[in-house]
Automatic annotation (TrEMBL):
Coiled coil: none annotated. NCBIfam families: stp1 (TIGR03087). Its EC number is 2.4.1.250. This is D-inositol-3-phosphate glycosyltransferase. One of its GO terms (molecular function) is D-inositol-3-phosphate glycosyltransferase activity. It comes from Stieleria bergensis. Gene3D superfamilies: Glycogen Phosphorylase B. The keyword Acetylation does not apply. Keywords: Glycosyltransferase, Transferase.
Length: 394
């Protein structure tokens, strides 16, 4: 099979967080058609089992640990007018290894996952290489949102990062052969704000509907003490801020009215999230080996994110598990679902409380929404079907 370079900003296995889920399934699709060289950093130890699993899908794996030296690289990039993000993920030795491999057996194409990995193919040896860049989200918009909500030194740093990441995105728009984002809505934002010569496509996430399934036994028909669940990496700012807002503004009233409980499932919870377990009705699990039992035991899935961009895997996974999901408009972006039948949209505190109280009191509606959500995901969100357009671009 023709050789292809895949650059990802994290080791893609195990697929236990949103970016890894997409990059892992992208690797699986590419490996069916190309001899893939994977190059990526890893911010957590990679076990022999994890390394061997990925090696079965690839021709070669080049991975390196992110040490404290990443901050020196980040500082160097900062001084040179580039983004801190680029410096965190760049490693000169790895860049040289990739160049050497390209010179000995030229890659037919490169797929770059996330803007932070693009500097690896900026070198002259890659000038004529076909480059498809999967930005996933418009990262500069995240930094802009963060800067708008921050103050003091953080605001200044976030604002600068917004400008330097936007500069990198403009470079990609001008140089790449195709740019991919996780939804047509996100692609539209990129076309409007970062115009360039590269065609821009929305290619959405999928979900493994064999892995995520409704429980074999019917869910409870309880109308009191309903179980709410949220899943996600709990040191990720949008998840943290979303759950802090939910637990401060929304959940206390719902808990008082319905005696509902909330389980927050996710690795690396920050201190502010861990402290939520002191709140009546809230449980914080930390990392778990498998999120499916928590989805199966729940009655309602919640996704109260305000900083969300692109498609939220957590929403698709809950829908595939047959759960009725209440979500913000931002967290529902890119999912072609109907409010009221396949999920519920709530943005204000009153909308959230009304939706939660209504679903808690109506097990029949919960079941109907969960089933239509499952049907939607099965019919339209399989991974290979979703990502195969990237093969067409290549």
């Amino acid at each position: 099979m023709p050789p292809l370079l895949l650059l990802t900003h994290r080791y893609p296995y195990p697929p236990n967080r949103g970016d890894r889920i997409r990059s892992y399934n992208l690797l699986r699709v590419l490996a069916q058609h190309y001899s893939v060289t994977l190059a990526c950093p890893h911010d957590e130890p990679v076990t022999d089992q994890q390394l061997n699993h990925v090696k079965q899908l690839t021709d070669r794996v080049i991975t390196f640990p992110q040490t404290k030296a990443k901050w020196l690289n980040a500082g160097t990039r900062f001084v040179s007018g580039r983004s801190i993000t680029e410096g965190v993920f760049f490693n000169r030795k790895v860049a040289n290894q990739i160049i050497q491999q390209h010179q000995s057996r030229p890659f037919e194409a490169a797929v770059v996952f996330c803007s932070s990995m693009y500097p690896y193919v900026e070198n002259k040896p890659f000038d004529n290489l076909t480059k498809v860049v999967d930005l996933v989200d418009v990262d500069s918009k995240k930094w802009q949102q963060l800067s708008d909500e921050a103050s003091g030194a953080k605001r200044a740093i976030y604002r600068r990062e917004y400008k330097t990441v936007r500069k990198l995105e403009q470079q990609i728009a001008d140089q790449a052969d195709a740019v991919v984002l996780v939804s047509e809505d996100e692609a539209k934002v990129f076309r409007q704000e970062v115009p360039g010569r590269a065609p821009v496509y929305g290619i959405s996430n999928g979900v493994d509907t064999e892995f995520f399934q409704p429980p074999k036994a019917a869910r409870s028909d309880r109308t009191a003490a309903c179980k709410l669940v949220f899943t996600g990496v709990m040191d990720y700012t949008p998840n943290v801020e979303g759950m802090l807002w939910f637990c401060k503004e929304i959940f206390p009233g719902v808990h008082a009215q319905t005696n509902a409980t909330l389980t927050i499932v996710g690795r690396r919870p920050v201190a502010a999230i861990e402290q939520l377990s002191e709140q009546p009705g809230v449980e914080v699990t930390g990392e778990v080996p498998d999120v499916r039992p928590f989805l199966e035991e729940a009655d309602i899935g919640v996704s109260p994110l305000k900083l969300a961009r692109g498609i939220q895997n957590k929403v698709l996974e809950a829908m595939a598990s047959g759960l009725p999901v209440i979500t913000t408009q931002e967290a529902a972006e890119g999912i072609d679902g109907k409010h009221g039948s396949e999920f519920l949209i709530a943005d204000t505190v009153s909308q959230w409380q009304e939706s939660l109280q209504a679903l808690s009191a109506d097990p029949k509606q919960r079941s109907q929404i969960g089933q239509t959500a499952r049907n939607k995901v099965q019919a339209h969100y399989g991974w290979h079907a979703k990502l195969s357009p990237i093969l067409d671009l290549l």
